Amino acid sequence: MSSDALFPIALSLRVALLAVALAAPLGLALAWLQARRRYPGRALVDALVLLPLVLPPTVVGYFLVVAFGRRGPLGRALESLLDVRVVFSPGAAVIASAVVALPLLVKTAQPALEAVPGELEEVGRSLGLGPAALFLRVTLPAAWQGIAAALVLAFARAVGEFGATLMFAGNIPGRTNTMPLELYAAWQAGDDALALLYVGVLSLLSLAVVLAAPRLAPRGLST
Amino acid sequence: MPAAVEARLRLRVGGRLGFALDAELALERGVLVLFGPSGAGKSLTLRALAGLLRPESGFVRIGGEPLFDAELGVQVPPHRRRIGWVPQRDSLFPFRSAAENAAFGLPRARRRRADPEVRALLAELGIAALAEARPASLSGGERQRVALARALAMRPRLLLLDEPFASIDRAGRAELWRLLRATLDRHATPAVFVTHDSDEALALADRVVRYERGRTLPGGPPSEILGDAYPLSLEGEHARLAAGALALGGVRLAGPAAALPEPREGRIRLSLRLPPERA
């Protein structure tokens, strides 16, 4: 087996891990916000969080290209400040995966955070814990099973990302050709052995996730 | 010496038609019991004292220091108040051992090793042997002892207890009353204790404030607010019936025994507690 064939596997795992690392702080903050706070516009935030889950991934990809393109607001800012061009880079694959994984992360973590008894947090505050310490020392450990499940599911969704990645990061060999993209390319080219390799790896990863996630979150997964 | 706690609280929860609280309380030292039926605003008062909610007007002073003052615009957040909090039940961190729970509010360096002060507290509360146990394996009474140790370990200026023994059987409760009272006295920690049980109030209180539908009545010493006990001796089956009838009429049996004692030589000796207005 050539190293060219293994590159997409390593790339996909790296992209998915970075995507989860990128989505986790924002996703957990959003989950906490939706679980613990009532504020005007909460329903709108809920809808926006869910949007990438129901939008066709190619549409998500289109929005990302518009936002991060050379004339897009984020793309222009990144280029002028950091001299970074995101579109068609591995970074674009990370962002695309993070965006489509975010709803799953938020919606799995949110019920886990909601299930943390208010008394625990109140006692934590009485014991001198400020907001950050309270989240790290009380809320997070009390909800860790659901949060672990949320991270695992987000990782699985990120590994499988296809449409948005293709639009936003392209399928550049040795650069952005993640497993799902390479699987499609191999299938088109009639390279059944290669296609089967990626099918096998992706299927095993997915099986591991569906086996692990319910064990982590006995209640959180029903959503 | 400034009062341990002084507060005047007005607040409303649940909008215009919601519940209104108008409470006034003061304690020089010792234990103040907030007494009254559930839904009268006792727990709400504790939450305001702890800083978990912000009253519309009034003040909270602990040892003379304002922690809340509507006019001065002062509202110290809960984590800077150094006020201990013992809720009704299940407030232990399930992912920590009893000793780790007790040390939870201490600085990191003292949390890492077994702190001698925490150990002493656990011993004082009779749970030294349970230091390594997880909350799930403890009984209700043991859990509340750990919760008490946790609140006392940070040397609070004031301890708030919200019916902490409500889910514990009566015999166990009497023992916890003695233990709590002795521990508070030893540490000279003033406390505000919420209960709707007059025996509990009498066992613990230096001062009692009565609550009625969101309002406090003027406070005073326990015997004045809760009424004195009257010894009474009744005979045979009549005693049972008579005592039952008295209980229906708002007269309560005094002492820790909820049920009538068994007759001895055909007699039942009772101590009855009358509300002051019926005495």
Write structural notes for this entry.
The complex is a heterodimer of chains A (223) and B (279). The longest helix of chain A is centred in the N-terminal third of the chain and has 34 residues, at 3-36. Residues 218-223 of chain A have low confidence and may be disordered. Chain A has one domain (3-222): Orthogonal Bundle (MetI-like fold). With 223 residues, chain A is mostly helical. Chain A is built from eleven helices and no strands. Chain B has 279 residues and is α/β, with parallel strands linked by helices. Chain B is 30% helix and 27% strand. Chain B has a domain at 227-278. In chain B, strands 7-8-9-3-10-11 form a six-stranded mixed beta sheet, with helices on both faces. In chain B, strands 2-1-4-5-6 form a five-stranded antiparallel beta sheet, with helices on one face. In chain B, strands 12-14-13 form a three-stranded antiparallel beta sheet, covered by helices on one side. Chain B has helices at 42-50, 98-102, 108-112, 116-124, 140-153, 170-187, 198-204, 222-226, 236-248, and strands spanning 5-13, 19-27, 31-35, 57-62, 65-69, 74-75, 83-86, 158-162, 191-195, 207-212, 215-216, 229-235, 252-253, 267-273. The chains are: A mainly alpha (223), B alpha/beta (279). Chain A binds chain B through residues 117, 119-120, 122-130, 134, 137-138, 141-142, 144, and chain B through 50-52, 77-85, 87, 90-91, 93-95, 104-105, 147, 150-151, 154, 160.
Strand order of the largest sheet of chain B: 7-8-9-3-10-11
Question: Measured on Cα atoms, how large is the radius of gyration of chain B?
Answer: 20 Å
User: What share of residues are in beta strands of chain A?
Assistant: under 5%
Between the first and last Cα atoms of chain B, what is the distance in angstroms? 36 Å
Topology order of chain A in helix (H) and strand (E) letters: HHHHHHHHHHH
Secondary structure: number of strands of chain B? 14
What is the end-to-end distance of chain A? 41 Å
- Note the total helix count of chain A: 11
CATH class of chain A: Mainly Alpha
Share in helix of chain A: over 70%
The description of the largest β-sheet of chain B is: 6 strands, mixed
Oligomeric status: heterodimer
Taking pLDDT < 50 over at least 5 consecutive residues as the criterion, the unreliable ranges of chain B are none
